[in-house]
Design brief:
The protein has 14 helices and no strands. It is globular and about 55 Å long. With about 325 residues, the chain is an all-alpha fold. About 55% of the residues lie in helices and about 0% in strands. It has a domain of about 210 residues. It binds zinc ion (ZN) (2 copies). The site of one zinc ion (ZN) has 6 residues, from helix 3.
Length: about 325
């Protein structure tokens, strides 16, 4: 079966060029050459690894489909039901990719740029399929959705998510912003500001974040990237750095429980408190924030930046 994403690539490139030209003319500096090229390299690697990855996913779906609970067929209402079910699966896949380090190791790639433009959309994992990210969709073929329908809907979702990686579009009509994932909502998702961390996990519909309590509205302009940026343009390093960090952490873990947490705990978890999870950062931020409303959020958000001179003792900082 032809991969829909391959057909969309020319449109991706054309829109990317249009955004780059707009950025140059308006002097907005939305792009950085090396960053863009490493995003493109990650995209190419994703397509190449996807050739094998898609076969693995199809095989896994077909295996589960043998035990399907219902014979759903292909009528229009099945597609409609699939649209919502696929998008819900994506939400939980994406939310888990931020909360479980094992999945984060693949997903971190997508968040490693400090720029936010259409090329960031192409900055994709090389390891996501091989580490089993597709398990979040397995219930769909088990229910009786045909594997090819599921994979088609997944491709449609990814294609949808391309256009939201831009700063050139502000907020849209309130009805659209209420229902759909938009550039504004997804800018929040790509931010390293504590207020915005691990929010807006939606694929196509933002309603899931509203329903499950992970929605945050975009207010001040987000700062993009990771709380602890990797500062590299090397595609191999971008693709594998978190896996190698996990390996190092497990090797030096003081016991089996710590080793388990380094793999399946939240990103930022550490046995000695030397690093912090989003929850810990947010708790500190809220405590320090009390009575200090004038305090710029971004100062706290940048606590872990290697290139910042911010001292990591919030009580001493004014
Ligand atoms: Zn994400
Ligand atoms: Zn994104």
């Amino acid at each position: 079966m032809p991969d829909l994403i391959h057909f969309a690539i020319p449109a991706f490139i054309a829109l990317l060029l249009a955004e780059a030209i707009f950025s140059a003319i308006s002097k907005k500096e939305l792009f950085e050459t090396k960053d863009t090229f490493s995003s493109l390299a990650m995209g190419i690697g994703n397509v190449l690894t996807g050739l094998l990855g898609k076969a693995i996913i199809f095989g896994a779906y077909m295996l589960v489909y043998q035990f399907k609970l219902f014979d759903l067929g292909t009528s229009w209402w099945v597609w409609l039901l699939l649209f919502f079910s696929e998008d819900l699966s994506y939400y939980w896949f994406h939310r888990s990719s931020h909360n479980i380090r094992y999945f984060w190791a693949s997903h971190v790639v997508h968040h490693s740029s400090q720029k936010y433009n259409l090329s960031t959309a192409l900055r994709q994992t090389w390891t996501g399929t091989f580490s089993g990210g597709f398990i979040f969709w397995l219930w769909l073929p088990l229910l009786g959705f045909h594997p090819l329908m599921v994979m088609t809907m997944q491709a449609i979702s990814l294609i949808y998510q391309f256009w939201i990686h831009t700063e050139t579009i502000g907020k849209l009509h309130p009805v659209i912003e209420f229902v759909f994932n938009t550039p504004s909502h997804h800018r929040v998702h790509h931010s390293s500001d504590i207020k915005y961390l691990d929010k807006n996990h939606a694929g196509v519909l933002i309603i899931w974040d509203r329903m499950f309590g992970t929605f945050v509205e975009e207010e001040e302009r987000p700062k993009y990237g990771l709380t602890n940026n990797i500062n590299t343009y090397n595609p191999l390093r971008i693709a594998f750095h978190e896996w190698s960090d996990i390996f190092k952490d497990i090797r030096t873990a003081p016991g089996p429980l710590a080793a388990w947490m380094y793999l399946f705990g939240p990103p930022g978890w550490s046995h000695d408190g030397s690093r912090k999870t989003t929850e810990q950062l947010r708790r500190e931020w809220k405590e320090v924030g009390k009575g200090r409303k004038d305090r710029p959020i971004e100062i706290l958000a940048k606590q872990d930046f290697v290139d910042e001179d911010f001292s990591p003792q919030p009580q001493d900082n004014r």
